[in-house]
What does this fold into?
Amino acid sequence: MKLKFLPLLAAIICILAACGPIPIDPLPATVALAIPTPTPTPLAYEQCGWQWATQPLPQLSDALQTALRENGLPEASAYAEAYGENCIDGTGKVNRFAALQTDFHVTLDAQNLNDAQELGKLLEQALAVLARFPPDQTPGPQPGYIGITYTNGSEAFRLWFNQTRLNELRVKGLSGADLFNVLKPLNIIY
It folds into this structure.
């Protein structure tokens, strides 16, 4: 059976040989593709000497002061400031300020600096106001610090704590005098 196809195969080979080779256009060695590639924009690097600094936030301070007054703390005083770094160029000039966080400072009048119940109640009132100014709506990418200064005449007592720590204590259910007593070891008396 294999022999029947042999003459047919020989005939096809003869026909192809008589026709000669079939011309084929060669492909170019390289092909230029017209694909646009974006040219990266060089980043301008600014030489800086970084120095820790604060900047006042007068509009935020005014809003904070108004909110304290509206929340039943008319005698309170407060201000907000951005904490971060100044970019200082080679000539010593400050080119810009990079805010890291916003810190709040609140001063409250107290009848008795030894009464945790009273100080805890004042703390709650102040924190209710500060909650209106969350870290994602104030300068800087991270939560800042809160300073609460209690005064009575010439005496003063100060709490200074990070908003992240405050949130951790709140999650544990602490408020009022209990919250004050946990924050109290961080105090500065002057």
The chain is about 35% helix and 30% strand. The mean pLDDT is 83.
